[in-house]
Amino acid sequence: MSYPLGLLAVHRAFREGTLSSVDYLATCTQRADEAEPWLKAFCYRPPADQITGGEGPLASIPIGVKDIIATAGIPTTNGSRVYADHVPDQDAPIVARIKQLGGIVFGKTVSTEFAWRSPGPTVNPHNPQHTPGGSSSGSAAAVAAGIVPLALGTQTVGSIVRPAAYCGVVGFKPSFGAIVRDGVHPLAQSLDHVGFLTRSVADAAFAFGLLADGADAAVAAQAVEGDVLPAMSSLRLGMVRPPIWDRVSAEQNQAFEAALEKLRRAGASVEPLALPERYWQGFEAAEIILAAEAAAIFDALVTQYPELTSPQLKELVAAGNAISAPRYIWARQLQASLQQELPQHLSGLDGILTVPAPGEAPEGLTYTGDASFCALWTMLGVPALTMPIGRSARGLPLGLQVIGGFGEDAKLLRTARVVEAQLAN
């Protein structure tokens, strides 16, 4: 279904002269023209004759940009009727960086309204009767359908990892703050992340190395250009089944267990990780933080534009307005406390393994799926990545989530590359 080349492969083919950038862009455009009538991954695509790239490591590579990320001269609607005619004057820094590196903004990918729960029109490329997930719906679908090799997404609870799992691609949420969020419409400032959807872990590492800030990004960039990866026998992985594991489908559980067993047979140490009970209060804390901060952002908007905002957004604002100051302070204090003590629980581990979602993408397009299995890791601000590991009986993707320590994005990406290679065998 997908165009065979991922981000790194295209970059190398351009560099080696084995692929014409003009031909590749034409192929991506043709694929979009064929798929978009039913896929609906994009809410806006610039005319083909207005798409130009520059020089650099992303030269002439088409990239999808989620519709809550500002793009100069290109509509940024935030998935909202309120912003239907909004055209920013400036690019978000992450978009400016893409352009500086030669990349092409191929189009704006569909987002749920303000990255919350009111879905757009995008369908799952594996079965259009099923959701692609949200809120980075269009980004996941566009990468999975072979239109672009890289798309930007955002995550406040599970909005990169979950749609990536549902669409069968890699979704990487870096550490909190690793990608500058200026120019990205906020949902909850203490939880919002920017990340990537790609076709492989190496592609995600390459994107992170180019587009993130800090020394860890440089390490990640080096890791995809000939770096020696750790041996499978040296990996120590913790496995986490949160108290909500009863939501996990039999198929997802079976795929998860099969992946763990394959890693163990290859020599990795995979043992249960028992986090203190208070970590599971993080589910409640994340909901409190999100609702309270979203209410502060959107209360005036839903009051001014009741006919242009969804019931889901109004419900979120109402829930946030009902949260007392002591409850919000409790949630933020718990977040800080858990973040501070997490390194001691991860000591000696190369990563944590769990599921990214309860199972396959739900049928229907009105519900984007359960984000609970991403919520704790997002609240903690740690890097998290999902990769496809199998299919359900209905042919829909199932994923594996790999989590690392805060600020240890390069380490997580190296671990995930080894896990991906082993599970692909």
Folded structure, characterized:
With 425 residues, this protein is α/β, with parallel strands linked by helices. The protein is globular, with a radius of gyration of 20 Å. It folds into 2 domains: 1-273 and 337-425, Amidase signature (AS) enzymes; 281-328, no CATH class. Helices cover 40% and strands 13% of the residues. It has helices at residues 7-16, 21-39, 93-100, 137-144, 161-167, 201-211, 215-223, 250-265, 282-304, 311-321, 325-346, 372-380, 409-424; strands at 42-44, 62-66, 104-109, 150-155, 170-173, 193-198, 236-239, 269-272, 351-354, 384-391, 397-403. The protein is built from 13 helices and 11 strands. An 11-stranded mixed sheet has the order 1-3-2-4-6-5-10-11-9-7-8, sandwiched between helices. It starts with 6 loop residues before the first helix and ends with a helix. The longest helix has 23 residues, at 282-304.
Lay out the secondary structure.
Layout: H1 7-16, H2 21-39, E1 42-44, E2 62-66, H3 93-100, E3 104-109, H4 137-144, E4 150-155, H5 161-167, E5 170-173, E6 193-198, H6 201-211, H7 215-223, E7 236-239, H8 250-265, E8 269-272, H9 282-304, H10 311-321, H11 325-346, E9 351-354, H12 372-380, E10 384-391, E11 397-403, H13 409-424
In short:
With 425 residues, the protein is an alpha/beta fold. 40% of the residues lie in helices and 13% in strands. The chain has two domains: 362 residues, Amidase signature (AS) enzymes (Alpha-Beta Complex), CATH 3.90.1300.10; 48 residues, no CATH class.
